[in-house]
């Protein structure tokens, strides 16, 4: 499999904030977001056995598979091996593909405004996190409403975009949150990438 990195840290955003996890970051992505914080083109090829040997070094039984975009890889063998070894498994995806893997315990998805809601294929997730990466408030609100109608989830989050260590659009994020509530689009919570503020990988 194409592996960018494997490391232990805490989940820095969303409902699982503070959870000790092992991140398995996969290479390649089917989108190209200008503010992406991962160089997913740089990866090494590892076998399933090599991946399992690497994560066994950590005293942790929680794994988050992220990217890049993990759903463009064949995850079946890795997921089965992880579940056979008793790992809790989460995946972070942009929502452009359906997820039919029976071994996944938690799905977090982050649809991208710049690509619109029409490319989203995912129908169900545990949480949705949308990055406010535009000044276009009206269109962004419409995008959030479309995503909420398209993806059934327990939690919906808005996040500020982070560029060069600085969080942008914080005021706009608050305005959008309020407007969504006024339009009957449900409750949206705020999720910051707190691991970046804490200087944690």
From TrEMBL:
<dbReference type="InterPro" id="IPR007197">
    <property type="entry name" value="rSAM"/>
</dbReference>
<keyword id="KW-0949">S-adenosyl-L-methionine</keyword>
<comment type="pathway">
    <text>Purine metabolism; 7-cyano-7-deazaguanine biosynthesis.</text>
</comment>
<keyword id="KW-0408">Iron</keyword>
<dbReference type="GO" id="GO:0051539">
    <property type="term" value="F:4 iron, 4 sulfur cluster binding"/>
</dbReference>
<comment type="subunit">
    <text>Homodimer.</text>
</comment>
<dbReference type="GO" id="GO:0016840">
    <property type="term" value="F:carbon-nitrogen lyase activity"/>
</dbReference>
<dbReference type="GO" id="GO:1904047">
    <property type="term" value="F:S-adenosyl-L-methionine binding"/>
</dbReference>
<feature type="binding site">
    <location>
        <position position="36"/>
    </location>
    <ligand>
        <name>[4Fe-4S] cluster</name>
    </ligand>
</feature>
<protein>
    <recommendedName>
        <fullName>7-carboxy-7-deazaguanine synthase</fullName>
        <ecNumber>4.3.99.3</ecNumber>
    </recommendedName>
</protein>
<dbReference type="Pfam" id="PF04055">
    <property type="entry name" value="Radical_SAM"/>
</dbReference>
<keyword id="KW-0671">Queuosine biosynthesis</keyword>
<comment type="similarity">
    <text>Belongs to the radical SAM superfamily. 7-carboxy-7-deazaguanine synthase family.</text>
</comment>
<dbReference type="InterPro" id="IPR013785">
    <property type="entry name" value="Aldolase_TIM"/>
</dbReference>
<feature type="binding site">
    <location>
        <begin position="35"/>
        <end position="37"/>
    </location>
    <ligand>
        <name>S-adenosyl-L-methionine</name>
    </ligand>
</feature>
<feature type="binding site">
    <location>
        <position position="33"/>
    </location>
    <ligand>
        <name>[4Fe-4S] cluster</name>
    </ligand>
</feature>
<feature type="domain" description="Radical SAM core">
    <location>
        <begin position="16"/>
        <end position="201"/>
    </location>
</feature>
<feature type="binding site">
    <location>
        <position position="25"/>
    </location>
    <ligand>
        <name>substrate</name>
    </ligand>
</feature>
<feature type="binding site">
    <location>
        <begin position="110"/>
        <end position="112"/>
    </location>
    <ligand>
        <name>S-adenosyl-L-methionine</name>
    </ligand>
</feature>
<keyword id="KW-0411">Iron-sulfur</keyword>
<dbReference type="InterPro" id="IPR024924">
    <property type="entry name" value="7-CO-7-deazaguanine_synth-like"/>
</dbReference>
<dbReference type="GO" id="GO:0008616">
    <property type="term" value="P:tRNA queuosine(34) biosynthetic process"/>
</dbReference>
<comment type="function">
    <text>Catalyzes the complex heterocyclic radical-mediated conversion of 6-carboxy-5,6,7,8-tetrahydropterin (CPH4) to 7-carboxy-7-deazaguanine (CDG), a step common to the biosynthetic pathways of all 7-deazapurine-containing compounds.</text>
</comment>
<feature type="binding site">
    <location>
        <position position="29"/>
    </location>
    <ligand>
        <name>[4Fe-4S] cluster</name>
    </ligand>
</feature>
<keyword id="KW-0479">Metal-binding</keyword>
<dbReference type="InterPro" id="IPR058240">
    <property type="entry name" value="rSAM_sf"/>
</dbReference>
<feature type="binding site">
    <location>
        <begin position="10"/>
        <end position="12"/>
    </location>
    <ligand>
        <name>substrate</name>
    </ligand>
</feature>
<dbReference type="GO" id="GO:0000287">
    <property type="term" value="F:magnesium ion binding"/>
</dbReference>
<keyword id="KW-0004">4Fe-4S</keyword>
<keyword id="KW-0456">Lyase</keyword>
<keyword id="KW-0460">Magnesium</keyword>
<feature type="binding site">
    <location>
        <position position="66"/>
    </location>
    <ligand>
        <name>substrate</name>
    </ligand>
</feature>
<feature type="binding site">
    <location>
        <position position="68"/>
    </location>
    <ligand>
        <name>S-adenosyl-L-methionine</name>
    </ligand>
</feature>
<feature type="binding site">
    <location>
        <position position="38"/>
    </location>
    <ligand>
        <name>Mg(2+)</name>
    </ligand>
</feature>
């Amino acid at each position: 499999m194409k592996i960018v990195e494997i490391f232990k840290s805490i989940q820095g955003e969303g409902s699982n904030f503070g959870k000790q996890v092992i991140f398995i970051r996969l290479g390649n992505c089917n989108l190209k977001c200008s503010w992406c914080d991962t160089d997913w083109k740089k990866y090494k090829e590892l076998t399933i056995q090599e991946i399992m040997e690497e994560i066994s070094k950590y005293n942790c039984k929680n794994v988050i598979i992220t990217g890049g975009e993990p759903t463009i890889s064949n995850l079946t063998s890795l997921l089965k091996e992880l579940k056979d070894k008793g790992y809790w498994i989460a995946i972070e995806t942009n929502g452009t593909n359906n997820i039919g893997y029976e071994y996944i315990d938690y799905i977090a998805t982050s649809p991208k405004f710049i690509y619109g809601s029409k490319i989203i294929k995912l129908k169900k997730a545990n949480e949705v996190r949308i990055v406010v990466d535009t000044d276009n408030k009206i269109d962004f609100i419409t995008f959030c409403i479309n995503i909420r109608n398209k993806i059934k989830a327990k939690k919906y989050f808005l996040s500020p975009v982070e560029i060069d260590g600085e969080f942008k659009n914080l005021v706009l994020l608050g305005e959008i949150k309020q407007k969504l509530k006024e339009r009957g689009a449900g409750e949206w919570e705020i999720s910051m990438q707190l691991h970046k503020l804490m200087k944690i990988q």
